[in-house]
Amino acid sequence: MLFNSVFFIILFLPLSLIGWFFLQRLETPVFAKVFLVGMSFWFYGYYNVSYLWILIFSMFMNYIFSILFDRVKGLGGRKVLLFVSVAGNLGLLFYFKYFNFFIDNCNYFIHTDIVIERIALPLGISFFTFQQLSYIVDLYWKKTMHYKWWDYACYISFFPQLVAGPIVHHSDFCPQLLARQNRRVKAENLYDGFSLFILGLAKKVLLADTLAIVVNAEYANIRILDAAAAWATIICFTLELYFDFSGYCDMARGIGKMFGFSLPENFNSPLMATSVRDFWRRWHMTLTAFFTSYIYIPLGGNRKGTPRKLVNLMIVFAVSGLWHGANWTFVVWGLLNGLAIVWENLFPKLRFKWEWVNRVFTFGFTVIAFSIFRSDNLQDALLLLKKLFTGGWNNMLFGISNVLQIPENYVLRQGLQALLPSAMNLMYLGTLLLPMVISVLLIRGKRAEVWIEEKGRSTFGLCVLASLFVWSFVSLSRVSTFLYFNF
Fold first, then answer.
1. FRET pair for 121, CA 20 to 30 Å: which of 63, 189, 191, 453?
2. What amino acid positions are annotated as catalytic residues?
3. Phi then psi for 113, rounded to 5 degrees?
């Protein structure tokens, strides 16, 4: 089920909130938790119920492991249990996400001829697997307690963050679930949460989905791009990805706030970063925190000298690339980021004295790296990189903007077509540049929650939010999904 759907906004979300707070009025909160888990299962299995059985199996498997960790006291037994539980989770993830990739590479590199049916990728399997791995590992180290089933089920399946994050740590969510004060409905939480949801919805529907029209069309036509069109395309993709994913996280955090939960922030103006290392402190922060806590630090972190630290960083970024998808483009993207981080660690003083120049170079690296991330294969990625620097100029910038035949410019299109057809190309170019300019202003502006606190509760803020909601709601007829559903 999509947040940006009429069914979710009109029926599912209100029904979920009403049922949750109504059942919280009962003496025991277990009925509300059962209801929330049931609604989350409905949300997850809405389009494909077979995915739901995979989620349920994963949850039961890990809950059994948690029971065993609660009962096994000996160190040897706990180590065996840790190995089995980690292997079980990674095995499930490998089968559904990477098995086809593994077979394809076996067929290519060692010339086997293995033919298997393509395995469907369950939504959000990387997200709920990583959440459960963090819980299992912390149980092994005795950093957390064994939770009752319905508490654990709420934590893993809570629908706002289930399929695309943010990756919520059990130490953040479970204490809030158990806190009695969160059982009462609060008007402030409902207003601020819905305001955050609206801002996220507008990011997704009005900006990301508009930019996606250009990105999808031109990544299918890389061979005909000139340099200017190629640069415009990859910049549009970086902006699309940012507003798509940060918009989703704003919606997720807004819904969580309506239910009384504070979900972790996942973005902190990452496209304003002044270095690649700074970028990864700001981009997908919950994933960065997971890799730091459960891969980088266990490998030794920076405690075993500089060479080992740099190797650890490369391992983390290789895993990060592979986590995003079963394609060599993701691996190369991860390794490029790892090499950039290694370079910055080796030469920390090799920087420009003007911060805006550092921002420009960091943004340029990020855009180029994401161009590989978006490519279907390495051949397309290399061709696109070639176009960026040797593509010349053949007016394709007007050609790529002509795909933006959207409802917002319909009246202007019809008027120009009748009165001044020679100006059509300029109108389309303006339609392309406008969302890019708005994107830059938003990137440089205040974070959504800061804006809500300062202006969102005023009459002006209410008018802005109402306008954005109506505009976004009317635009929901467009076919779209969230990019990170694929990861």
1. 63
2. 324
3. -135, 55
